[in-house]
Design goal:
single chain; mainly alpha; Glycerol uptake facilitator protein; 68% helix; 0% strand; membrane; channel activity; transmembrane; Major intrinsic protein
């Protein structure tokens, strides 16, 4: 949450390759910037693991993600898919363009990550982020299950971006149709003016209530 509040207006606080890709899929983020973001995200995760290993003297494998005992790689894949689908949906729903900014986004994203960790950690470790898994796997030299934490989050992010993009397209189409549709009261006023010009309106003044309703419509 703190990083979103601190860095949201600077870089967007993506922190996750699938988030950058999801913003690009929704046309909020240029594709040519995605590779640079992903490289920096992978580098940041690796440096964090090296710091923990050499400065704090913590084994890099402590931060690794892998399927829990009794669960297969496919079970972990589906868990990562579902968790990332929810995460990216929250991010796209609270973001401003391609930026995670504001208190709503910070608490929404942070709260979801905390709850997802409680639910998914016993099965897959709740990565939802290929960069977060890449760092410990690189430093620990073990990529045996890394594909799970790339394929699952990528698939979940793609589905979330497609759903959000479809909603935005339907909203734009609805707004465009409302703008293009002529308003009925304008047509009524035009018809009254035409009838008046051709003498179609009777010389007898209408009742006061009818006159008021005509004026209020125009």
């Amino acid at each position: 949450m703190g990083i979103i509040l601190f860095m949201g207006k600077v870089s967007g606080s993506h922190l996750n390759p699938v988030v950058s890709i999801a913003f690009a899929l929704r046309s909020d983020f240029p594709w040519w910037r995605v590779p640079g973001y992903i490289i920096v995200q992978l580098l940041g995760a690796t440096l964090a693991c090296l710091f923990l290993q050499h400065v704090v003297d913590v084994s890099a494998t402590f931060g690794s993600n892998y399927p829990a005992a009794g669960y297969s790689n496919m079970s972990a894949f589906w868990m990562e898919f579902i968790l990332t689908l929810g995460l990216v949906s929250v991010i796209l729903g609270t973001a401003s363009g391609a930026q995670n900014i504001g208190i709503v986004g910070a608490f929404g994203v942070g709260g979801y990550i905390a709850l997802a960790g409680l639910w998914g950690s016993p099965i897959s470790g709740t990565s939802m982020n290929p960069a977060r898994t890449f760092g410990p796997d690189l430093v620990g030299a073990d990529f045996s299950s890394y594909w799970v934490y790339v394929a699952g989050p990528l698939a979940g992010a793609a589905v979330a971006a497609n759903r959000q993009g479809g909603r935005l397209r339907r909203l734009r189409q609805k707004l465009d149709s409302q703008v293009a549709q002529p308003r009925s009261y304008r047509s009524d006023c035009r018809s009254l003016v035409q009838e008046s010009a051709t003498g179609a309106i009777s010389a007898t003044p209408p009742p006061r209530s009818a006159a008021r309703s005509t004026v209020s419509r125009c």
